[in-house]
Amino acid sequence: MEQVIDSSIWIDHLRASSPLRLKKQTHTIIISPDMFICEPVHFEILRAAPFQERGYIERLTLTIPSLLTPKELWKEALQLDRVCCKAGFRINLMDLLIAQICIHHHFPLITFDRHFLSIAKCSDLELNLLKREIS
After folding, report:
1. Burial class for 46, CB neighbours closer than 10 Å (0-12, 13-18, 19+)
2. d(Cα 13, Cα 39) in Å, to the nearest integer?
3. Cα(110)–Cα(77) distance, rounded to whole angstroms?
4. Per-residue model confidence (pLDDT) at position 52
5. Burial class (CB in 10 A: 0-12, 13-18, 19+), 88
6. What does the alpha-carbon distance between residue 73 and residue 13 come to, in Å, rounded to a whole number?
């Protein structure tokens, strides 16, 4: 099943201190041929990476198909923010944009980040919320 890999999975995969079981879990996700990345996720993982690792990460992410961010999605993400705020959820900008890209392209989001549950409650976001395998 085609899905967009969220930053939380990438960061756990790339972090040197992640437990081996978590590394194996995230590696299986990242190498799956059905996985995609989107521009905001790409931005987030590069921004979080140490400078000396950015070239490697850039090359790695280029092996994953990427979903585009049509410019109207920024306005749609803002509308999604309004809906979430009315429901009592305050969501950060990048998560709103990632969710809106997934909704627009009809792709589920695979993530460890429980914040996306709030967005899914307020929208058509399909979510594959995973539990981290750490022990």
Report:
1. middle
2. 18
3. 19
4. 93
5. exposed
6. 28
Sheet holding 127-129, edge to edge: 66-67, 35-38, 3-5, 109-111, 127-129
Kindly report, residue by residue over 60-84, the tens digit of the pLDDT: 998 999 999 999 999 999 999 999 9
Q: Which domains does the chain have, with CATH numbers?
A: 3-129 (3.40.50.1010)
Q: What is the pLDDT of residue 30?
A: 94
Q: What DSSP line would sit under 91-111, residue for residue?
A: --HHHHHHHHHHHHHT--EEE
In the structure encoding, which two tokens stand for residue 47, read together?
């921004």
Q: Give DSSP secondary structure letters for 32-49.
A: -TTEEEEHHHHHHHHHHS
Per-residue confidence (pLDDT) for residue 77, from 0 to 100: 97
Report yes or no on whether pTM surpasses 0.85: yes
